[in-house]
Amino acid sequence: MFHTSYDVIVVGGGHAGCEAATAAAKTGASTLLVSMNLQNLGQMSCNPAMGGIAKGQIVREIDALGGYSGIITDETMIQFRMLNRSKGPAMWSPRAQSDRMRFSEAWRLKLESTPGLDFWQDMVTGLLVKDKRVFGVKTSMGHEIKSKTVVLTNGTFLNGIIHIGEKQFGGGRAGEAAAKGITEQLVELGFESGRMKTGTPPRVDGRSLDFTKMELQEGDEKPGKFSFTNTSPLTKQRPCHISYTNQKVHDILKTAFHQSPMFTGRIGGLGPRYCPSIEDKIDRFADKNQHQLFIEPEGWETCEIYVNGFSSSLPEHIQHKALSLVPGFENFKMFRPGYAIEYDYFPPTQLNHSLETKLISGLYFSGQINGTTGYEEAACQGLVAGLNASRQAQDLEPIVFRRDQAYIGVLIDDLITKGTDEPYRMFTSRAEYRLLLRQDNADSRLTPLGHSIGLASDQRLERVQEKEQAYKACLKFLEKTSIDPDQANGLLESLGSAPVKQKTKIIKLLLRPEVKLSDLSQMGPLKQYLTENPFEEEILEQVEIQAKYAGYFEKEKEQAAKLQRLENLKIPEDIDFHKLASLSHEAKEKLTEIKPESIAQAQRISGVNPSDISVLLVYLGR
């Protein structure tokens, strides 16, 4: 029924599993994707959206490397918005509402069209391990399937328990069974495990809502997209809406707090700090008499609506009673109630930067099993784990992303260096080099690497090279071309900018905060140049960003170079930190637990002080 042995077996078909399976197969590994339900591949278990603050940057990085999340999103989105446009370009973050059913279908078709990828519907109940090396999996049907490497992407399914009020039942997602056996075996093998919690809001019948009582939230007038390939931009969009809870809603919900599994202690795991349940918000922010709700359609044709901001594990009749007091929901009908789900995870300090476990060779973890939350965080881990599992099976060195190279590198380094005891979510504030890691330049940063390792196509690389040649040529024109005062001053006055008294390089005018390239493009020589060279909008955006922020980019590059020198100072694997008497007691414990690979990584560990780093440098002869 199966090959004698696969190079890579991917367990789980969520966002991490889909990216892992395609990355492994595209880079030449014979790959098997095992999922409990092949009808739910790429399922959006929670909100029907991709991207958002920092998450949008991750999706663009996945796409730049040759992954598929950006393409799938472009093919199935129903609305697009670029968030944080009022801030600097480091903060701009694309976000899309997706058609939930089409998103899953598109992933299924993409997986099926990937050469070298096989499928099997079954529950993996354990691993085949010998001499601290994995060599396959065991399934509930009694099969033992051999492989050189295994990637676990189990999501919320490991011993998952669903909570609705005082009711609780096993499950990894509503209507789907929990996965048993893997946690227990991993703990026996020496892994540390923990519990986490997440939740989801009710889904309601859009036909029963009164949208006239809500605020309209349209998409961007000129919708963008995620993929750097030639996917088609949206020509029409579905609107979202905004409504608000009120004190009456809060009072109804409070009557059932004694039935909340969160407050009664039935849930031991910590929930996501930045996406709390409605009862948690009411409890933590008692001074607020309303909370914002985003009313999000689940697709082009379906009437199902996702009530973003109303995650709850309270009894379903309480959810219904409270929600009916929200403007626009007076006569609403519920499709399914919100619920909380508790599941096993494994603290990610037990991993290397490649996402291979330190205890078992050939075993990789990605997604919520590592304590993260979000489709985007899961997908990028899946790509890295699948890629490195494939490379190990082919006796190649792993690919490791640096903090100054990608948000993906920031995420993985945060996880394995700092660990997490609550669901980890990416933010722009977590990236110290976020000016270098913008969503608009992800292709320039990562596509050459993606191409060199077999993920990104020749066409992708050619597109990046053409883009870079174009914006550099345009920049050069701005740097060498001057404009007369009589051509410039009328425009400058209209923009509230100081006039010039002599011929001035166009680039100097563009450096003024109040002056945009679109303003200057209407003037003399630049207007003629752009008419003769009709650049795409993304090229002109790159030109403006590069011109205005060049000095800041150089400073961040200098800081990144200093960090890289410390990254190159490797710490021996067999070092016994307890024998270094001058290290603090906390540093000895943390360094022994994390086993940092370099001085730079050791420096980022909480509890390791500059004096401890000095001791390590002396030990290394520096």
Structure notes:
- This protein is of the alpha+beta class.
- It is 36% helix and 18% strand.
- Strands 1, 2, 6, 7, 8, 9 and 20 form a seven-stranded mixed sheet that branches. A six-stranded antiparallel sheet has the order 14-15-16-17-13-18, with no helix packed on it. Strands 11-10-19-12 form a four-stranded antiparallel sheet, with no helix packed on it.
- 48% of the residues are buried.
Using brief descriptors, characterize the structure shown.
622 residues, alpha+beta, FAD/NAD(P)-binding domain, Elongation Factor Tu (Ef-tu), domain 3, Arc Repressor Mutant, subunit A, seven-stranded mixed sheet, six-stranded antiparallel sheet, 36% helix
Summarize, please:
With 622 residues, this protein is an alpha+beta fold.
- The share of residues in extended strands comes to 15-25%
How large, in whole angstroms, is the Cα Rg? 26 Å
Shape: globular
The CATH class assignment of the largest domain is Alpha Beta
The average pLDDT value, as a whole number, equals 94
How are the SSEs placed, and which strands pair?
Layout: E1 6-11, H1 15-26, E2 31-35, E3 49-51, H2 55-65, H3 69-76, E4 77-83, E5 93-98, H4 100-112, E6 117-121, E7 124-130, E8 133-139, E9 144-152, E10 161-164, E11 167-170, H5 182-188, E12 194-200, E13 203-205, E14 215-217, E15 240-244, H6 247-254, H7 261-264, H8 278-284, E16 292-297, E17 304-308, H9 316-323, E18 334-336, E19 339-345, E20 363-365, H10 375-393, H11 407-418, H12 442-452, H13 458-480, E21 482-483, H14 485-494, E22 504-505, H15 506-510, H16 517-520, H17 524-532, H18 537-567, H19 585-594, H20 599-603, H21 610-619
Parallel strand pairs: 1-2, 1-9, 2-6, 9-20
Antiparallel strand pairs: 3-5, 4-5, 7-8, 8-9, 10-11, 10-19, 12-19, 13-17, 13-18, 14-15, 15-16, 16-17, 21-22
Helix pairs in contact: 1-10, 2-10, 2-12, 3-4, 6-9, 12-13, 13-18
